[in-house]
Amino acid sequence: MAADSPLDAYSRIVAGVAAELTPKVASLRVTHGSRRPGESLGSAVVYTGDGFLLTNAHVVGRAAGGTALFSDGTSSPFTVVGADPLSDLAVVRAGAGTPPPAVLGEAEDLVVGQLVVAVGSPLGLAGSVTAGVVSALGRSLPTRSGSAVRLVEDVIQTDASLNPGNSGGALADSHASVVGINTAVAGIGLGLAVPINATTRKIISALMQHGRVRRAYLGIVSAPTPLPAWLHERVGSKEGLRVAELIADGPAARAGLRVGDILVSAAGKPVTTSQDLQRLMFGDAIGKPLEITVLRNGALVDVIAEPSELAAA
């Protein structure tokens, strides 16, 4: 086989990503308390040079800490800095030295068919590496924390197989930049990863600084619906969100929104999916006026709402 064959080039890329990231992906042995005795396993990606690692919220659960094991045989106790079940992201901090951090990429730049490599450390030994392609983008992953339900938006679907214990590991592009944190097996030969993008970077920053993510809410249950043709050019989109239900005495109801209203824009930006609203619902929106434009009885109506804080589970 020629040295420059496509298969050889593919192998070199995967081997290069594995060599770069395997030392930077730890195995987590998570120690649970009396309510859930024993240990569970997962993976984590070194995020900073001073010991912060990224993993999944479902990997750490309600645990306070455990042990991180690296591919060079070293280990370190870690503490859970913060976990956010609604994004399935968590930050832990190792108490001893860690390898250099992985480089984070940008999931927004991914395209379907692009090569990706999943790197985990399910047993804390030499790591686990699988390769595949991005099979779909824009998927949604339902998550729950108590009574609160959210969709993790723009989840990456890949056919790079995920092994048990790979949750919390890295999904990387061909340059070994981490574009996602592996989170779930979607079916035979399919895996899902939480993307690294502007929204998740904001979540990670909040977890590092405050140990939790403050979220705002409006109290709307909605569904996408087509906009009339005369509105397309005016608002720059063909769909809005029809209000199907309002939480009694919630921020949206108090602001005067009605069932049947079609949300056209919020904070001056088009609203076509529930994710468009979710992007606005972080801590800095709590108690601040939010201008919402709705289509009601054939006319555009402006409403000012003040999002409230979503109660912790």
Biggest sheet features: 6 strands, antiparallel, barrel
Mean pLDDT: 88
Described by the principal axes of the CA atoms, the overall outline is globular
CATH class of the largest domain: Mainly Beta
By CATH, the architecture of the largest domain is named Beta Barrel
Distance between the termini: 58 Å
Q: How are helices and strands ordered from N to C?
A: HEEEHEEEEEEEEEHEEHEHEEHEEE
List how many beta strands DSSP finds: 20
Stated plainly, the CATH topology of the largest domain is called Thrombin, subunit H
Uncertain runs are none
User: Please, how many helices?
Assistant: 6
How much β-strand is present in the residues? 35-45%
Number of domains: 2
Rg over CA atoms, rounded to whole Å, is 22 Å
Strand order of the main beta sheet, please? 1-2-3-6-5-4
Question: Helix coverage percent of residues?
Answer: 10-25%
The helix-and-strand class reads alpha+beta
Explain the overall architecture:
By secondary structure, the chain is of the alpha+beta class. The chain has two domains: 1-212, Thrombin, subunit H (Beta Barrel), CATH 2.40.10; 216-309, PDZ domain (Pdz3 Domain, Roll), CATH 2.30.42.10. The chain is 16% helix and 43% strand. It is built from six helices and 20 strands. The protein has helices spanning 6-21, 57-60, 198-210, 229-235, 251-255, 274-278; strands at 25-31, 39-46, 52-55, 65-69, 75-84, 89-94, 115-120, 128-145, 148-158, 170-172, 178-187, 190-195, 216-217, 220-226, 239-246, 262-266, 269-270, 290-296, 299-305, 308-309. The strands form four sheets. A six-stranded antiparallel β-barrel has the order 1-2-3-6-5-4. Strand 4 and strand 5 (75-84) form a beta hairpin. The longest helix is centred in the N-terminal third of the chain and has 16 residues, at 6-21. The radius of gyration is 22 Å and the shape is globular. The N and C termini lie far apart (58 Å). 43% of the residues are buried.
